[in-house]
Model the fold of this input.
Amino acid sequence: METRPATAPDQVASMDTGRLRERFLVEDLFRPGEVRLTYSHEDRIVVGGVAGAADLPCPEQLRSEFFLERRELGVVNIGGPGAVTVDGTRHELAAKEVLYVGRGARQVHFDGRFYLVSTPAHTSHPTVRATLEDAEPVRLGSADGSNDRTIYKFLHLKGIQSCQLVLGVTVLEPGSMWNTMPCHTHERRTEVYFYFDLPETDRVVHLMGRPDATRNLIVAPEQAVISPYWSVHCGFGTRSYAFVWAMGGENQAYDDMEPVSIGELR
Done:
């Protein structure tokens, strides 16, 4: 498991492209038969990926007996049909379906292609599978704004119950490429975007940084961007795509954000 330090906003001004990518972009998430994990000290979020058949490991950095001893986990199927077995119970997952695994689960086995997000947990909730039909959909944007999209909220106050993890999947309509515009920051939470469902040759230009001093990352399919509380997070793709958004921090209120108007961006 790779470990990333937290970053203060005034550090970003001196970072070149390579340093920005090293600190905020998670690139190498998928290798056959492995669970690849990155631990961020931004709200102690762990993001990961698994391709094929593998068990959830317990890296020594966690100093725990098993991975979910003090954590909870969100699993998103980003490939074809797959399954996750939690303490002997098998859960079948189709594309874009989600499994929440609560604190205390000891054995987790994956068969498929999954994106993983984990946050610390101080209470336990049941393991729950959810389809797109189970999620709370919100349609936002418009075709003329190139941001016509559906936000599927899975883990939130009125959805699957968790300790602090909030998670959903946003799907852009054909011809729409902007996500989360106008954008925002989260004073009380860290958010991670994971981009998928676009061809390998396409990219997303992800905006980050303070609203008055934005920087950008060129993001390939199936890569994730860590967004600290002080950073905006939005992007424009070379074609339509989907992305997983996940947050951890002080609360689970989906609308707890600081809006940033388009005119404020620099």
